[in-house]
Amino acid sequence: MATRSYRQPATPLDYRNQAAVPDHQRYSDNWRAMSESTRRRLVHWSDVAYGQGELQTCDIFPTRNNNAPVFVFIHGGWWHFLDKSDYSYVAEPFVERGAACVCINYPLAPKAKIEEIVASVQAALLWVHHNIREYGGDPGRIAVGGHSAGGHLSAMSAFTDWSQLGGPEDLVKVNCAISGLYDLVPILDTPHNENIRMDRATADEASPIDMVRPSAVKHILCVGAAETAGFLWQHDTFAGLCKQRGLVVEDLRLAGEHHFSVVDQVANAESELFKSLWAAMTAG
User: Fold this and answer.
1) Does residue 201 belong to any structural domain of this protein?
2) pLDDT tens across 40-52, in order?
3) Handedness of CA 266, 193, 183, 126 (dihedral sign)
């Protein structure tokens, strides 16, 4: 078991994000409707394979530019549901401003273990690095973002030793984790784990909070101020540890936003989150 350098909650915290937002289905329905509209309007390639495994596909929204910044988005869903096609709408403000955007799928729990999901996301990012020039993107300007479980996977990508996987050490320039899960140990005792089927060894192996180390990656860490206590604890603890260890961190707690509304801010060009991410993607 990992020895943690921070204090675990004395009592279990609330991770019931759906119970906290009774009309959560309205948000999910809206994501799908906006995504269908986005796919009708934007040039894109659907279900491009980045591997041979189940759900190892991505949707690519290219740019007409050359050497443009790239935003890779990873969907949430507690690692066991939702799909990249639910989040096509995220691509719109990036493509409008001349960037390329890639929305990725990954194999889902419980059929896939968390560590297998992490490996699949790593494979996706290596594929993007090797192939994004064909779609106008610059492989040296990759930002990765994700929501909820996708925030966990985005954070994991930021601490990956890419040199061990055949990529450049600085493959990921920006990590934009939205309402992420960074310490998986508390999730073991939640009802969500009935669908994930994660054990303690996996929780120890795949917790970004245990991997924090100095690097050149910029971390934009965002959470809705109206989220449940569990998600707020995850954000505050991870952001605090990253700052303590000298990482470049922008810590955003968005007033009035809950777990389902906060992800929309990454697709809102007027939001604090989008402006922070865009500035980081285009810096230098």
Assistant:
1) yes
2) 999 999 999 999 9
3) negative
